[in-house]
Design a protein that fits this description.
heterodimer, A: about 300 residues, alpha/beta, Rossmann fold, Alpha-Beta Plaits, four-stranded antiparallel beta sheet, 10 helices, about 30% strand, B: about 280 residues, mainly alpha
Chain lengths: ~300, ~280
C-alpha cells in the first residue's frame, strides 16, 4: 500500500477570531483526482494555502508526499505544481520569460514539454503578460503548474476564464496525469467539472469537511424526484413511511416525492390507484449533494 | 519562435538577478537625476568660490545651530570639500539614495505580496529565507550602483568648474551615504517582510528617517540632550565629515549593523508569517 499523497490531521486555521477551516481530516490517495468542493468562503483557499505552507495551521498538521507541510516546504514545492485561485504574473515579462524565470528557480523543467503545453493551449509565449487576456493569463498559470511534471498538482479553480475548448484541453491534461499515476487535488465550485474529472470529492462547508465521497458511489445512490399524476385525489397517507421515499408532497391528484434507491415500494403503493402519468427526474450531482448535505445537517452518510 | 521555448535571459536565473533586472529602468532615471543634480551644484561652485568673502560673512550671520548642522566643522564653505559637504552630502545626496533604497526595500516582499505575484514565486523550491536574502542583495546592488554613479558624476562634472575634491575622500563620503541608504532600505524591507504592506513600510521608514534627521540637526544646540544624537543614524553618517576626514570605521560599522539588523528582522519575521491571499 503506497502512502497517501496528502493527509490532513485535525487541520485547523483561525484568522484571529475569524474561521478559516476547522479540524479537517482527510487523505488523498496516490493517483487519484480529488475534487474539493465548496462555495466561496467555505475554506477551500485556506486549505490549499496550508498545504503549500503559505499560511500556517493554528492546530493540527498536514502531510504532503509523506513530508511535513511546514518543515519540508521547500522539498514539497520541488515536487508539487500549484495554481492559485487568484494570482498575478509579472506584467513586464513575456510568457516565455515568465516561464523561463520559474523554470530556472525550479531547475527540473522539461522546456520542450512546456512548449508543447503552450501549443496545446494555443498560447503565444512571445506576448507581454500585460497584454494577455484573463484566460491567457490563466493558461500561463496552468503551464507553470504542469511544466515540471509534478507528482502532485494542487489547482484552485483551474478552468476559470478558459473557453470551453480550452477547458476540454485541460480535462485531457488531467486524464493524462491520471494515466501517469500522478495525483491531482483540485478545488472548484463548479459541480459538473468535479463530476467529470474527479474520482472522489470532499465537500467543505463553513470551514468543516462535511463529506468525502466516491463520485461513482454518489451517483449510485440513485436519488430521483418522482412526479405522479392520478385519475383522482389520493390520500397522502398512502405514501407515507414507504422505504426510501422522502419529502412526500401530495396535493389533490398529484404527488411529488424523492426516492433513494429502488422505486419498488412507491410503484406498488401507486398501483392501488389509477395512474395517468409517472415522471422520474434524474438528478444532477448538485441535487444529490443538496439532498444529502443541503439543509445544514453535518452528519455524514 | 525559435526552437528554444524560453527566452535565454541570464538575468532571469535567480530572484536576485530578476530583481536587479526589474530595477534597470528606475536606476537609469535615478542616475540621470543624480548626474543632473551634481552638474547643477558644480556649476554654482565657481561663483561661490569667487565670492568667498561675502559667503563667509553670510555664514557668520547664521544661527549657531544651523552652522554646526549644515556646515563643515572647519567652517570652510568655499573649499571643494566644504562646499560638497554642505551642499550635496548634508541633504541632497543621502536623500536621493535613501528614497531609492526605501522604495526598493518596501517593494521587495510587500510589493510582490500586494500584487499577488508572491504565491507562485514561493511555490517554487526556493525558501522564503532565500527570496528575502536575494531581495536584500538586489537592494544593496541597486543602491551601490547609484552610489557609484554619484561618485563618478561629481568627479566628472566637478572638474570643469574647479570643484576638485580628493577623490578618495569623496569616495568615503559616498560610501557613508550608501551605508545610510542601505540601513533605511533594510528597515523598509523589514517592515514589508513583517506586515506585507508596502505603503506602511514606506511610511514607517520615512517617519523614522525624518525624526532621525531632525534629532541629528537640532539636538546639538541643546547640550544636555547631546547623547540623543547617538540614536540617530544620521549622526553616524556625516557628523564625522567623511569628505574631509575620511570614513570613520566605527561609524560605518554602526550603519552596517543597522542594515544587518534590518535583514535579520526581515528573515525572522517573513519566515514566521501567514502570507496575504
Amino acid at each position: 500500500m503506497v502512502a497517501d499523497v496528502i493527509v490532513a490531521e485535525r487541520l485547523s486555521k483561525w484568522y484571529g477570531k475569524q474561521r478559516g477551516v476547522i479540524e479537517l481530516d482527510f487523505a488523498v490517495h496516490p493517483g487519484e483526482v480529488f475534487g474539493y468542493l465548496g462555495t466561496n468562503g467555505a475554506g477551500k483557499t485556506t486549505t490549499i494555502r496550508l498545504l503549500l505552507d503559505l499560511i500556517r495551521p493554528t492546530r493540527g498538521r498536514a502531510t504532503v508526499l509523506g513530508m511535513d507541510a511546514r518543515r519540508d516546504a521547500v522539498e514539497i514545492h520541488r515536487r508539487v505544481g500549484y495554481l492559485p485561485g487568484e494570482f498575478a504574473l509579472y506584467e513586464n515579462l513575456t510568457g516565455a520569460e515568465y516561464l523561463a524565470y520559474l523554470a530556472a528557480l525550479r531547475g527540473n523543467v522539461d522546456e520542450r514539454y512546456a512548449r508543447t503545453l503552450a501549443e496545446r493551449f494555443d498560447l503565444d509565449l512571445s506576448m507581454r503578460i500585460a497584454s494577455l487576456s484573463h484566460g491567457n493569463k490563466q493558461k500561463v498559470g496552468l503551464i507553470q503548474a504542469f511544466m515540471h511534471r509534478p507528482e502532485l498538482l494542487v489547482l484552485a479553480e483551474p478552468t476559470q476564464g478558459l473557453d470551453p475548448l480550452m477547458q476540454q484541453e485541460f480535462y485531457r491534461l488531467i486524464a493524462e496525469c491520471r494515466e501517469d499515476g500522478r495525483t491531482v487535488f483540485l478545488s472548484s465550485h463548479v459541480m459538473p467539472e468535479v463530476e467529470r474529472v474527479c474520482d472522489r470529492v470532499g465537500i467543505i462547508r463553513d470551514g468543516r469537511l462535511v463529506a468525502v465521497e466516491d463520485i461513482g458511489e454518489l451517483k449510485a445512490k440513485e436519488i430521483r424526484t418522482i412526479d405522479l399524476h392520478f385519475a383522482g385525489p389520493v390520500p397522502p397517507v398512502a405514501f407515507a413511511g414507504l422505504p426510501g421515499v422522502r419529502d412526500v408532497q401530495a396535493e389533490g391528484d398529484r404527488v411529488r416525492c424523492t426516492v433513494v434507491g429502488h422505486v419498488d415500494a412507491l410503484v406498488k403503493a401507486a398501483a392501488r390507484f389509477e395512474v395517468i402519468d409517472l415522471r422520474s427526474h434524474e438528478p444532477t450531482l448538485e441535487e444529490i449533494f443538496l439532498a444529502f448535505y443541503g439543509k445544514g445537517e453535518t452528519d455524514v452518510e | 519562435m525559435s526552437s528554444e521555448v524560453f527566452a535565454r535571459s541570464p538575468m532571469l536565473r535567480t530572484v536576485l538577478l530578476k530583481t536587479v533586472r526589474d530595477q534597470r529602468r528606475a536606476l537609469t532615471w535615478w542616475s540621470v537625476g543624480l548626474i543632473g543634480t551634481a552638474a547643477m551644484y558644480a556649476s554654482f561652485y565657481p561663483s561661490v568660490r569667487d565670492n568667498a568673502e561675502t559667503m563667509n560673512r553670510f555664514i557668520q550671520s547664521m544661527p549657531e545651530w544651523m552652522r554646526t548642522s549644515f556646515l563643515s566643522a572647519s567652517g570652510d564653505y568655499t573649499s571643494p570639500a566644504g562646499y560638497l559637504h554642505t551642499e550635496m552630502f548634508s541633504f541632497f545626496a543621502p536623500l536621493l539614495l535613501m528614497v531609492f533604497a526605501i522604495g526598493a526595500g518596501a517593494r521587495a516582499i510587500a510589493g510582490e505580496e500586494e500584487r499577488r505575484t508572491l504565491d507562485i514565486l514561493l511555490s517554487t523550491p526556493v525558501s522564503r529565507r532565500r527570496v528575502a536574502t536575494d531581495k536584500f542583495l538586489a537592494l544593496t546592488a541597486g543602491t551601490l550602483a547609484l552610489s557609484a554613479v554619484l561618485w563618478v558624476s561629481i568627479a566628472a562634472v566637478g572638474a570643469p568648474f574647479d570643484l576638485t575634491p580628493n577623490l578618495v575622500k569623496l569616495g568615503a563620503a559616498v560610501a557613508s551615504a550608501f551605508l545610510l541608504a542601505l540601513a533605511f532600505g533594510s528597515i523598509a524591507l523589514a517592515v514589508g517582510c513583517a506586515t506585507g504592506r508596502r505603503g506602511l513600510a514606506i511610511g514607517v521608514t520615512s517617519a523614522i528617517a525624518g525624526v532621525s534627521y531632525l534629532v541629528d540637526v537640532l539636538v546639538p544646540s541643546v547640550a544636555s540632550l547631546s547623547w540623543l544624537q547617538t540614536l540617530s543614524p544620521f549622526h553616524f553618517y556625516a557628523d564625522n565629515e567623511p569628505i574631509t576626514n575620511g570614513l570613520d570605521p566605527l561609524h560605518a560599522l554602526v550603519l552596517l549593523a543597522i542594515a544587518a539588523a534590518g535583514l535579520g528582522v526581515s528573515l525572522w519575521s517573513f519566515e514566521r508569517r501567514d502570507l496575504a491571499a
